[in-house]
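User: What would this chain look like folded?
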Amino acid sequence: MTSKSSSRSNLKAVPSHTALPPTSRVIDYEMLLGALPHPLFVIAEDQSILFANAAAESFFSMSLLMMRRSRISDIFAFGCPLMALVEQVQSTSATVNEYSIEVSTPRFSGTKLVDVYGGPMPDDPRSMFLMLQQRSMAQMIERQLTHRAAARSVSGMAGVLAHEIKNPLSGIRGAAQLLEPALNDEDRALAQLICSETDRIRNLVDRMEVFGDERPITKDAVNIHDVLNHVRRISEHGFGHRIRYVEDYDPSLPAVLGNRDKLVQVFLNLIKNAAEAIGDKSDNGRILLQTAFRPGVRLSVPGSGTRVSLPLMILIEDNGSGIADHLKPHLFDPFVTTKPSGTGLGLALVAKIISDHGGVIECESEPKRTIFRVLLPMQQRSNSAKSELG
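Assistant: Here's the prediction, encoded as structure tokens.
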């Protein structure tokens, strides 16, 4: 480790007004980048390594001095998909994000699964940064599989319930209605209770039947900002009238290939949940609606070896009470709810609709800050140009 410490001690700060060569400019970032808990490199135009933080040294079992004598291609095994991302950043000067990349290197046995973030350095676009975030398991893929498996389990149950419950319910309700005129006031109230409870159960089964619909949804070009504005107006004039809404939209966002009515259902559910988490007692309730174009985001399709691009991000953030830790792993499972009168099907249906659109939904939550993030594919165009949607 002596060589590592001595190599760092030679780095000296240089006044900001001085014209710095690319290697020296890294010095301004050393303290900040070195403190990051994830492996990070700064790479020169010729792919030589200008800087690596302590997490990178630990991850690859190499000292900074050894890394500075290497190119980034020397560290990774031949054919590692990460190198394609390095070349993409250098050729396009654009940031990239990619989830669940398998990396291998002669420095450790086997492979490790990482998320990759990269882009040009802000003060010298000729150099770039590359950060790896290791995943203990394919968490993003697992969530996709879990959401779809949960939807399939409810789908199978819905078909059984429709036949085995709805038909008897009709008979029970009909019998109660026939008996009601001949009953005294006390018993008539019981007959009416039977009718109202059978209606409640039937409505629950009707909601579950949506999961059993395996038909492909009808898709068209959808302006997601129109969807969000429509849902916001509904909220402002109803359940969320005391909440302040903040919009942070990317005006150049291309169209989503989707079903407008179902997307309205998704975001109405998410915003309603956010409003309920804030509650009526708060005068400082705030919901952020944000969209962004993230061209580097790609995810694996469960059950196949292909990776699809999900560049359209829609984010819903609230400053409500947050989600309990014990609920987070099961948030999109059917029948999971904290509401006294809730069915627990809302977020399960949201996950199914997003899955039907070829996208994914994620959630992160802490007290006073909950974020639902939806990633969707964009409408494919022959000229691959983005249409501006205000």
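The radius of gyration is 27 Å. If you want, I can go into more detail on any region.
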